[in-house]
Amino acid sequence: MQAPAAAERNKGPILAVLREYAGPGALRVLEVGAGAGLHAAHFARALPQTRWQPSDIDPQALRSIAAYTEAMRVPNMLPPILLDVSQGWETWGGTQPATLDLLVSINMMHIAELRCTEGLFKGAGVLLKPGGVLFTYG
């Protein structure tokens, strides 16, 4: 399990803003580029009404996410999926059009290639429900 210091520092402030978009009803969330999984586990645990789907392109990150899920016992966090955001949304783990309430991407856009950011926005345009939110940070 990885524990980046920056993720530990900013998980509270990010969660505070996420709460503004995560109402009381059930929500389906896809996190693109979940990295080590600290944020995913923290947010899913704090927002039990969500069905949180973490993803990453790095197999090492996927193992870390799975370890966080198990260690923190987060029942509403799904097993992580391998996802390359630069590929079409059709390859995003079976996510269907207009089924997501939130699409979350933290600390990806400023380090990834432009095609990844373009893919994120294209995917958001198809996968978010009407009124759904693309939530980015970093």
Automatic annotation (TrEMBL):
A Pfam family: DUF938
Gene3D superfamilies to which the protein is assigned, alphabetical: Vaccinia Virus protein VP39
Similarity comment: family membership: Belongs to the UPF0585 family.
Organism: Phaetusa simplex (large-billed tern)
InterPro entries attached to this UniProt entry: DUF938, SAM-dependent_MTases_sf
Protein name (record): Methyltransferase-like 26
